[in-house]
Amino acid sequence: MPNGTMPERLTAAETYAAKVDALVAQRSRLLPTREERTDRWAQRASFFRLDPRRKLDRNARALLDLIQPDDSVLDIGGGAGRLGLPAALNCREVVNVEASDAMRAEFDAAAVEAGIANARNVAGRWPENAGGLSADVVMTANVTYFARDIAPFLQAMDRAATRLSVVGVWSVPPPDRARVLFELVYGEPRAPTPTHLDLLAVLWEMGILADVTVLPEPFRGFRTRFDTRDEAIDHALGSVEAADRPGARELLERHFQDLFRPRDESGFEATWVPQEAREMLITWTPKGS
Which of 103, 108, 139, 287 could disulfide-pair with 79, CB 3.0 to 4.6 Å? Predict the structure, then answer.
């Protein structure tokens, strides 16, 4: 370096933003003709609607056990109410801050069907549409991966919460679970999604020393078992948005034995999905509480 100067070091928040920018730039370059819908969840929202009164797995139960009966809850990016609506059954009120019209519609329909009257939606993105919202508990799950301006996002959570802030993330972010397929199909590594390590570094930079709880259940949101060869390939192509990419199907056909193995009973099982992913709850007491 000239005059012995050192390169300027990025802050944790700047590093986080740079990772999100790299993801967006890669997607724009590799999928230049992909039309972005106003509501990206419009065609898939119904798949995220679950029965609020279902038996919860241990991970969901661990998160909801943090909520007390008298609590009000803000669920940021809570979608169709996967966690927010079960929480509403055991607390005073839940407000779902959600940008997707389709997700909010599924949330409302599920609430009506389950007879839940203490849950409502607020349309918009966080923190732009925080609008003075506050609650005893402010939580978000599987949202922070793509929040480019992560420090304002977390600061708004901290300001809005009066008792507890909760962020749920996976050690391997769900978008990165198809990284083997991505590199095979596109010929380059997938730009990495920010992880819990990046998130914790931003919190520490903000002066927040959060607690981290590793949850017991493995990742179940990614399908790994298929009845037929065509079904397996179709799912793999969809996982990396390559169903229409010229030559992609033929490429996966050639590498099928590297990507899938026969199941003992029948069908096939994916071998490209990492098994080490664990869900974590990152929690802290708000500064102003």
Answer: 103
Lowest mean pLDDT among 88-92, 95-99, 209-213, 222-226: 222-226
CA distance 200 to 173: 15
Q: Is 176 part of a structural domain of the chain?
A: no
How far apart are alpha carbons 185 and 191 in whole angstroms? 14
**Number of structural domains in the chain:** 2
Residue with tokens 């990016």: 77
Q: Give Cβ neighbours of residue 263 (< 8 Å, ≥ 6 apart).
A: 225, 269
Q: What is the mean pLDDT of residues 5-20?
A: 87
Residues 113 and 238 in one domain: no
Q: What is the pLDDT of residue 31?
A: 84
> Which residues are 74's β-sheet partners?
95, 138
Mean pLDDT of 262-267: 88
User: Does 266 share its domain with 208?
Assistant: no
Pairing mode, strands 268-270 and 260-262:
antiparallel
Mean pLDDT of 155-179: 95
Query: Domain limits at 91?
Result: 10-171+195-218+276-284
Grade residue 222 by pLDDT with cuts at 50, 70 and 90: low
The CA distance from 199 to 209, in Å, is 11
Which tokens sit at 175?
Answer: 């978008």
